[in-house]
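Example 3.
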Amino acid sequence: MRTFILVALAATGLALGSQSCSKSSDDQAPAATSFDRKAMLTNLSTNLILPAYTSFQTTAVNLDAAVTAFNTTPDAAKLTALQSAFQAAYKQWQATSAYGFGPADQANLRVNTNTYPADVAQINTNISSGTYNPTLLANLAAKGLPALDYLLFGVGTDNNAILQQYTTDSKAANRKTYLAALSTELKTNITTVVNAWNSGYTATFLNATGTDVGSSTGQLVNQLDYDVDVFKNYEIGIPAGVQSMGTAYPEKVQAYYSKMSVQLALLHIQALQNIYLGKSAQGDGLGFDDYLTQIGAKSSSGGSLNDVIKAQFATATAKLQTLTDPLSDNIKTNQGAVTATYTELQKLLVLLKTDMTSSLGILITYGDNDGD
Amino acid sequence: MKRSLLALSAFSVVLLLAVSCKEENPTTVDVVPVYTIPTTYNFTNVDFSESTTRLGMVTEMSTLMRGALTGTLDGDKLKNMFTNTSSPFSTSLTYNTSGLQLKDQCFSLMQTDALRFIDSLVAVSKTGNVASRGVAGVGTSSANAATKYALTATGVNYAQVFNKTMMGGLICYQIVNNYMTAAANNSLDNTTVTTGKGTALEHAWDLAFGYWGVPIDFPTNKTGAKLWGSYTTQVDSGYHANKIFMDAFLKGRAAISNKDTKTYQDQATILMQGFERVVGAAALQEVKEIKESLNDNIARNSRLSECYGFVYSLKYNPKRKITDAQIDAILALFPKNFYDLTLTDVNNIRDAIAKQYDFDSVKDIL
């Protein structure tokens, strides 16, 4: 008994000792210097997150209106107007996708908006049957921007042929109904998210100033990293064949039918970098760059971690700039350049997901999404 | 990291209070032998090779089931492996001559369910179809072209259902109903030592440890951890099963060898409850994986099958706290056709399991 008590006491003492150490370091940043996380969260929510959501809401409202106008009188001019409204929404989504926490998580916004490649068979089944259940997860690849991409650019070889699908085709009426269901759903989902932020979630976000699993910084970093993960794999890696022993799947790129994959990817990496920097139309505010600098975070080679991350954003962007639209063709003609881009994105992800999170004391709670 | 430290310190404070109470009130202190508890599973006369062999048999069956992805599966061979008939194993030829089998160690319902699961998987393997709603066959993950699953027409992956129910109907069942029950009830001899195997009670305890599927210096070393040894690590961020189980196994074994009855009975209770609760944690871990593959019909259905298998396997635990009605209520939250799954279904499944096993605060990180 005495031995056991001594062992227990020793263990207790050790645990208490380490607990008090960790407590003092957790209350502030891991280094001695403190960083005003609330000020960073204020900058990010006021100048980046809410503007991103509301801008996407605007483009979704415009898109839905363009669908209504087109469905009323489907003609070449309305189709062109609808296509550009769609492109505007897809571009704005690139600056919105990273914020997949809180109300956006509740609304399942990311996968509801942008699951690709589109499941053309499922889309056509839904159109033919005239039934569509938006709550089925099996319909995720038959809705959102990728399905619209197919419906507005992929159902014919040119705009004349596309127009026929909405005028003379036997399923024209069903196709128009489906188009309207999808654009309305997009609009409804983002409106739900914006409303939630405007009716209480903003305060929730600003007040969860810790770095634990439920904190705003924790969720932001997790979703930022997850978005980089998705970017790396789905926009570049999978189409280029990095997960399939080099067998390319060019048709799996984002925006396959509208052929603006590289354009979107460049907007996407710019948006991710802006989150990291806290940079918006209002200027360069507090971001993770300032946070890492303030606490003196070092890279594995001993230098400033912030400098390494910024340099890697630049390197990855430069690689993306060497690619050309349509990316699906570029993959066929120059697969090496696409996989080289993947490699740089992979390095960026490691910095953000491993080095940055360990410096900030943030736990990654999402899995790798492969294997069992 | 912070979470675990806080939990650890809270535990330590409780321990400290408990110890000081006992010191102030010596009349309640039992006469307890003095002994030290090692930090690894290093005791004299330990032999859990029978458990290791059976885990190897399960693994070889799961490996053979992968054949459903490329052609017709040999169902007879799988059933022979289940009963160790006609020398079916090739991982290690000693399996064939071991005199050990899986079937007679399984909970009675599992003995017949396993055959049903094998038949279902074999039927899928014979179709030669590409899996989709209403069509049994082999499907490919949309995220990873190299990842394939054999699914029934309603999206069930019986290879995973088999694997997960064996974790319940064989491993948990043996640990909980056989070995831990014996320790808790003090129903085995703890006096006569057989060289290499210890007393009957020591041997039972060692076989239970062997079924966990971890190295003796776990969790410092995780090499070769399989089945529950793998899952206790996967759920460790939300439920610290690695430490809870290892501490209990070490403390209990030391107590048995030192005739400290009260202590090993307490550890047996911890492990009996732990091997039910970890099933809930594993099911929630699958929910998390489902959420990470929401838009991947094939992979999502396979993960839903894993989750279903874990929940269903609770039926094989005679010592469970969850009732049959509660298990059926959770199973009823799964759609009849897995292709009909909605996010609401996923959240309902998650919430029901979390509530049952008191994992509400960690339900999204397990």
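Chain B touches chain A through 48 residues (CB under 8 Å). Residues 1-24 of chain B have pLDDT under 50 and may be disordered.
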